[in-house]
Write a structure and sequence with these properties.
By secondary structure, the protein is α+β, with helices and mostly antiparallel strands. It contains one helix and seven strands. It has a five-stranded antiparallel beta sheet with strand order 1-2-3-4-5, covered by helices on one side. The chain has a two-stranded antiparallel sheet with strand order 6-7.
Length: 111
C-alpha cells in the first residue's frame, strides 16, 4: 500500500506506510516555531514522548528543520528513508556465503 500523508494544519502531519515486513506504520510529526521537527509518541500509561526527527526519519544524524511547509519536508525525508532502505537491501542481496559454502536446512554449512 502506498504511503499516506495527512495534514492537520501547517504544523501537524501524519504519515502511514508499510514497513519492510509489510506491517502498517503510523507516525505523527509536529513543527516547533524554530522549524525543528519532532515526532509524537502517544502513551496513556507513561505519558506522551517527543523526539526530534533526524535525517531520513531515522534516529541518527542531524535534526531536520522545516523551512517551508511541514508536509513537504516529511515527504522529502520519507523518500530519503525509502532510498536508504533500498540501498541497504541491494547490499544484502549482493552478499553471498562465498565459494564452497552450501546451504543445508537454511543454515550455511562449509563442505
Amino acid at each position: 500500500m502506498k504511503a499516506v500523508f495527512k495534514e492537520f494544519g501547517q504544523r501537524h502531519v501524519a504519515l502511514s506506510y508499510d514497513d519492510a515486513d509489510g506491517k502498517r506504520v503510523e507516525r505523527e510529526f509536529m513543527k516547533h516555531d524554530n522549524g525543528l521537527i519532532y515526532e509524537v509518541f502517544y502513551d496513556r500509561q507513561s505519558g506522551d514522548r517527543y523526539e526530534y526527527v533526524r535525517d531520513g526519519l531515522s534516529n541518527t544524524g542531524s535534526p531536520v528543520i522545516a523551512f517551508g511547509p511541514l508536509i513537504e519536508t516529511i515527504r522529502v525525508e520519507y523518500q530519503a528513508m525509502r532510498s536508504a532502505q533500498k540501498q541497504a537491501q541491494a547490499q544484502l542481496d549482493g552478499i553471498s556465503a562465498g565459494p564452497g559454502v552450501r546451504h543445508l536446512g537454511g543454515a550455511p554449512c562449509g563442505i
